Amino acid sequence: MMRPTVDHVDALAELGRVRLDEISLDDMLRRIAELANRSVPGAMEVSVTLVRGRDSWTAAFTGDVARELDEWQYEQHRGPCLDASASGDTVSVPDMAAERRWPAWAAKARTVGVGSSLSIGLPIQGSVVGGLNVYGDSTNAFDPPSIASAEGFAAYAAVALANAHLYDTAATLAAQMQEAMRNRAVIEQAKGIIMGDRRCSPEEAFALLSKISQDTNRKVRDVAEALVARAVRHTRV
Fold first, then answer.
1. Which helix (H) or strand (E) holds 6?
2. Average pLDDT, the chain
């Protein structure tokens, strides 16, 4: 059995010290995979599966073997990481040579040096679920204490990941709102310039911006920004 290089408690403490305002969601996923790989006894490689609707993908991985075995499952729409993600349970494959639920996947796992695996469900947030996948290089690589360690880490990681997902969603929404406000401001400025030049109404000014946008195949915001920039240059001359 591969021995962990980081104590289980230290791994949880390190995960708890991560500041959401200093790390992206992708970085959080990579940190979870790396810490699990270093702290779960028997782990050779680790990956994190995310599932949204019918779409499944490996969001983080510590090696190509984990990614390859995950992607086989996505292509075939079956396998332990998908079952764990859907149920939230722990799915153990103690011996790939004796595995009967997914024999083709288990045979592939043996060809790349994997003898056993664990997949632990990660309830994340809303419509997104996932799984922590731990691969071992020998049969029965994960004894009961090792499984308990992996489940404890996964439970803590699920909370950290859910918080990171919420923070990322809120930050994205805030950025979109700021961009929308900037777009509206420059469009209003452009409308004001047109209204002053043509002595027209706000509706007529916006209609003109829209026509230029369609004729030049540019966004209304880009047209407005160019008009404002030109007006500023003329003012400075």
1. none
2. 82
pLDDT at site 3: 60
Q: Which residues are CB-neighbours of 210 under 8 A, at least 6 positions away?
A: 220
pLDDT in tens, 131-164: 999 999 999 999 998 899 889 888 777 776 766 5
Residue 31, amino acid: R
Q: What is the pTM of this model?
A: 0.65
The mean-pLDDT minimum among 6-10, 92-96, 175-179 falls in 6-10
pLDDT at 27: 81
Q: Is 176 exposed, middle or buried (0-12, 13-18, 19+ CB in 10 A)?
A: exposed
Q: Which residues of 90-110 are buried (b: 16+ CB within 10 A; e: fewer)?
A: bbbbbebeebeebeebbebbe
Return the number of other C-beta atoms located less than 10 Å from residue 196's C-beta: 11
Residue 20, judged by CB atoms within 10 A of its CB (0-12, 13-18, 19+), counts as middle
| Cβ(223)–Cβ(233) below 8 Å | no
Could you give all domains of the chain from N- to C-terminal order, each with its CATH number? 8-170 (3.30.450.40), 173-236 (1.10.10.10)
Closest to 84 (Cα-Cα) out of 106, 117, 45: 117
75 in Cβ contact with 145 (< 8 Å)? no
Structure tokens at 41: 């006894």
Q: Cβ of 12: how many Cβ atoms within 10 Å?
A: 19
Residue 123: other Cβ atoms inside 10 A: 14
- What is the Cα–Cα distance from 32 to 59, expressed in whole angstroms? 11
